[in-house]
Design a protein that fits this description.
With 72 residues, the chain is an alpha+beta fold. The chain has helices at residues 9-18, 54-64; strands at 7-8, 22-26, 29-35, 41-47, 51-52. A hairpin with a 5-residue loop joins strand 3 and strand 4.
């Protein structure tokens, strides 16, 4: 099993955009959305911090249905 570690915000955003997520709003957090082929919409939030904690990163991985390895 791969251990998560905090990542820079720009790295998390790069992975999301590479996987088809679009930034739809920026306030206290950046909101990213992606529409799936079946019409379902995946939504996740990235806080406006230089580094994203392991806890928040786990939540983003779960919401985006991506593997942890894609974020490493």
């Amino acid at each position: 099993m791969v251990k998560l570690k905090p990542l820079p915000q720009r790295k998390v955003i790069e992975v999301l955009e590479k996987n088809g997520f679009k930034n739809v709003r920026t306030r206290k957090h950046m909101t990213f959305k992606k529409r799936l082929e079946n019409g379902k919409v995946l939504t996740t939030w990235v806080p406006l911090h230089k580094e994203i904690s392991k806890f928040v990163l786990k939540y983003i991985v779960k919401q985006t249905r991506k593997s942890i390895e894609e974020f490493l």
